Amino acid sequence: MKISLAFLRVFFVLLSLFFMTAFMTSLPVGPIGQKILIGLGVGAVFSALLFSIEALFKRYNLKAFNTVILGLFFGYLLGQALTSIFNAVAEMSHMNMVLQPQTIHLIKVSLFLVGTYLGTLLTLHFSDEILLSIPFIKLSQSNIRKKDLLIDATTLSDSRIIDLATTGLLDNTLIMPRFLSQELYSQSEIGEEHIRIKAKRCIDTLKKLEGISSLALRYDETKFSDLNDSFTKLLRLARLTDSNILSADLSQAQVPVIEGIHILNLHALSNALKPLMEAGESMKIKIQRFGKEPNQGVGYLEDGTMVVVNGGGDFVGENIDVQVLSVKHTSSGRMIFCNTMD
């Protein structure tokens, strides 16, 4: 990708220099040396302009580009329609005989510009209702679409993402930033031992996700050389691609929205999918340790949910029948309070 972009840039620079120099030397006036220097200067300025446009377009995705092009097309048609209507009205009302030709020309130009602006503005305003597929254009009746999910490093460090990916819920949705994968490969080779181990575990998870054919994991090649923090890069990429972020960072579980970007947390999803327990239900639990209160025991369900049992302090190490009193939801999960049935 880097080689192809570099080749393309060099090619267009040389092309710009050649054509501008050839144009200047074809002019009949001026010494040949001066015309060559001017041609090279104009070509260099034109190349710089191309690179500036390229840097500007990096902030937008293909959908935004297609929407603008479509808006300009609709605006052109609207401008032509307004101009044609004005010509017909002017001819029927003999307006051409009253107004000056310059005034009529100014009105036509103004109507065309107004039509172009309105067409582009309306297309951008209702862009969510337009699905653009080449070579056909289809209007959608719904402005709701499924957003993509950008993966962060904490997601790859959590093996549950593999089980979630195999369910099919994330098919054609996940996007892996290339800058993040390069950072993981770098950390797996250079750095402290625990950082290398964590990076290698993330890389193994990434390779397993790539092996799930139905998942259709995609890579985004966008780079942000002006930023150093990975999460800041991720936020900018999410705004650029109109995507959400999938994370397994516990600190992000308390902040589901950052700068307008939704953060979907694996821990919150896991807690939401835990089986519900209603007051009065009975179950069997193994008391593993003493609780904070006297004669209180603590056990754990298979999904890690803590179960606090009143009167369970006498049964540490035993499996007993308990009855659910209440369920308390916390930021880190759920706690179930029970009484012994013995």
The CATH homologous superfamily of the largest domain: 5'-nuclease
Number of strands: 14
**Overall mean pLDDT score?**
82
Side by side, the strands of the main sheet go 5-4-3-6-8-7
The unreliable regions are 131-143
Count of discrete domains: 4
**SS summary, helix count:** 11
- Please summarize the sheet with the most strands: 6 strands, mixed
CATH topology of the largest domain: Rossmann fold
> How do the SSEs run, as a string of H and E?
HHHHHEEEHHEHHEHEEEHEEEEEE
How far apart the termini lie comes to 69 Å
CATH architecture of the largest domain: 3-Layer(aba) Sandwich
**Shape annotation:** elongated
Rounded radius of gyration (Å)? 32 Å
Tell me the fraction of residues in β-strands, as a range: 15-25%
- Using the coordinates above, name the CATH class of the largest domain: Alpha Beta
Helix content percent band: 40-55%
What do these coordinates show?
α1 packs antiparallel against α2 and α3 (62-92) packs antiparallel against α5. The chain is of the alpha/beta class. The protein is elongated and about 105 Å long. It is 50% helix and 19% strand. It has helices at 2-25, 32-57, 62-92, 95-98, 101-125, 153-156, 160-166, 178-189, 193-210, 230-241, 266-272, and strands at 130-133, 136-139, 149-151, 174-177, 218-220, 244-247, 257-258, 261-265, 282-286, 289-290, 296-300, 306-310, 319-330, 333-340. β10 and β11 form a beta hairpin. The protein starts with a helix and ends with a strand. The chain is built from 11 helices and 14 strands. The protein has 4 domains: 15-57; 62-139; 149-272, 3-Layer(aba) Sandwich (Rossmann fold), CATH 3.40.50.1010; 282-340, Beta Barrel (OB fold (Dihydrolipoamide Acetyltransferase, E2P)). It has a 6-stranded mixed β-sheet.
